[in-house]
Design goal:
Length: 137
Amino acid sequence: MDWVKIIHILCVMGWMTSVFAVPRAIIYWKKEYDRIGEFGPTGDLTIRLYRFSAMLAVIGVLTGLWLAWSVWGFATWTHVKIAVVTVLAIHYIWTGKIVMRAKRGEFRESEVFLRIFNEVSVFITIAILWVVVVKPF
Ligand code: HEM
């Protein structure tokens, strides 16, 4: 099962790349859009990054569930972890909605909102790591 865990950690690292980068990238995407008035390379990169990490997120969650079932028999801490990861997934889906609107040239969220929105994902991730490293239950 070590290889499943290695793939799990690799894929969640890849997911975190976009969790932490995409909300910030949207800030610079809007600046680019204001300057050139159309969809440009920053937007293109942001969408590709979001989609690639979404794929890694699916593999990360599936390998995590496999480990939780086969190694830990879904011990209580795995339920808590799944609950916190669900909050992170909702945050990521919300990010996806902002990305899809931006693709249509619609930038509703302010820079301050996006920066705070970005920091929220950091605290959720710290909570996930605390549960899996400390296994408090
Ligand atoms: C539904 C989603 C997930 C489930 C069910 C899950 C479950 C697990 C399980 C059972 C392990 C093995 C723990 C061990 O053997 O010590 C593990 C390891 C790990 N998971 Fe997840 N995980 C999920 C999502 C995530 C996410 C989103 C992250 C990162 C933010 C993450 C980070 C880690 C890390 C860093 C380890 C290695 C911990 C260690 O070796 O001490 N996992 N996960």
